[in-house]
């Protein structure tokens, strides 16, 4: 025992000056401060997890508004802690599904986006955002999210089935938007041609099979805008032609 005491005694070098003593004391204080910070961080993370777990219980009980409040508390605690991206992204994703249950799909999308900003490859957040986009008939956006899921996890059957379901809906919506645009252009055409007692109703829209675009109003306006045609139409009202 005496040998060991002597060995450790030889390893300790007494400070040669007051300055060295101060440095040793400061190093000790820094170690204690660092340890205290780590303990505080762990405590804060535990509190954030407790709030999240309470939110999960409330969610399972169908108390979605109360669950939202608990997840918000967890986020506020985690915000003050470094390296808390994981729990924060989970809380945002959980808030997203609460909003989805409440039918607030715009808020669902916002929360999922926040979760993905913290954790880009978060599959659940991508799937939930895609579902919310589908509810709002944002089919193109939903498809983009689903394709990202498949990119990250090619074996995800749920995502592949969703893609097969969404693509026809997106195509149908694009076609509907084109038809609505045609109607608006038709109204504009009628407002101009109406000055000459004409209408585009007797003309049929021609769809380009290659591009899917229509040439309806262009051909109609050219037909009616020639001076000869306008003159002929006017003369017809009088019952004779030149």
TrEMBL record:
<dbReference type="InterPro" id="IPR011990">
    <property type="entry name" value="TPR-like_helical_dom_sf"/>
</dbReference>
<keyword id="KW-0802">TPR repeat</keyword>
<dbReference type="Pfam" id="PF00515">
    <property type="entry name" value="TPR_1"/>
</dbReference>
<dbReference type="InterPro" id="IPR052769">
    <property type="entry name" value="TPR_domain_protein"/>
</dbReference>
<feature type="repeat" description="TPR">
    <location>
        <begin position="89"/>
        <end position="122"/>
    </location>
</feature>
<dbReference type="InterPro" id="IPR019734">
    <property type="entry name" value="TPR_rpt"/>
</dbReference>
<feature type="repeat" description="TPR">
    <location>
        <begin position="123"/>
        <end position="156"/>
    </location>
</feature>
<protein>
    <submittedName>
        <fullName>Uncharacterized protein</fullName>
    </submittedName>
</protein>
